[in-house]
Specification:
The chain contains 11 helices and 12 strands. It is an alpha/beta fold. It folds into 2 domains: about 1-90 and about 170-275, 3-Layer(aba) Sandwich (Rossmann fold), CATH 3.40.50; about 100-170, no CATH class. An 8-stranded mixed beta sheet has the order 6-7-8-3-9-10-12-11, with helices on both faces. Helix 4 (about 105-120) crosses helix 5, helix 5 (about 125-135) packs across helix 7 and helix 7 runs parallel beside helix 8. The chain is globular. The structure holds iron/sulfur cluster and magnesium ion (MG). Magnesium ion binds near residues 46, 177 and 178. Keywords: ATP-binding, Cell membrane, Membrane, Nucleotide-binding, Transport. It is found in: Cell membrane.
Length: about 325
Amino acid sequence: MLEVKDLKTYFYLDDDQVAKAVDDVDLTVKAGETVAIVGESGSGKSITSLSIMQLINKPGKIVDGEISLLGRNLLNLSNREMTKIRGNDMAMIFQEPMTALNPVYTIGNQITEVLRKHKKMNRKQAKRRAIDLLKLVGFPRAEDTVDEYPHQLSGGMRQRAMIAIAISCDPKLLIADEPTTALDVTIQAQILDLMSDMKEKLEMGLLLITHDLGVVAEYADRVLVMYGGQIVEQSPKRNLFKDPKHPYTEGLLESLPSVHNDLERLGTIRGMVPPAHKFPTGCRFSSRCPHAMDKCFESNPELIDLDHEHAVRCYLYTED
Ligand code: SF4
Ligand code: MG
């Protein structure tokens, strides 16, 4: 349903440097599937999702690749055509609902605006539908909520309202970028459960951007691990947790507290993601990798298939 090929999104900095924030990313999301992109901040996961929505602003630019949704290459569309697709065929939920919601309009108005624009409903139909949507996402008094303003809702309820707006036009693809990072842990689970329910009900594909492996473990079907603007490992969730291949994935998993991992054994990956205009010549993880060999500093490995569903970008898994 969503197919991204060879995506490159670069940022052209003042001093003629180029930050290769997303560099050759391939991904697919099928209907009904939850694909998680996981990585530290600076790994390129948010830029990937913004590129899919075509919300990249200067000095950033999508310089190469293909993004097709339901068989149409979005990169060939005009701004007007793209505006029709955004909010209609695909919708996005951001980390901080307060910045995505307009504080001067009621929740109802923000839903009806989308419905009137994309679905050509009249005022009455749109309001009816807004109330139904608010009920669907768990507002017990939807008839009242529809006339309330964002500041009258709690953080969790605002995120529910965002979900109502996002699903109002039955999108095929929902992109959620750290949708619960700003919320309390108990509310986080409720919001993720809701998104997961909506995904099933509406048969959407869900692209979930997160730095939280606990969230991945609970909700993802497939996982893409990003580092330095590239996918370094991809696999169905169960293989990734059982049998991680890339040293970066291993490091991430070691820093995950679990029943087997008491706090004293918590590993962390030394160092930080290098800035995107200063990636090393070789493997982008080489400056932090405990297994780095000579060739790791000379050239960057390709993403290679270990089997038809598990792929890794690392010289530990190549023949020569
Ligand atoms: Fe480590 Fe080398 Fe593999 Fe990169 S290619 S992750 S430096 S072992
Ligand atoms: Mg981010």
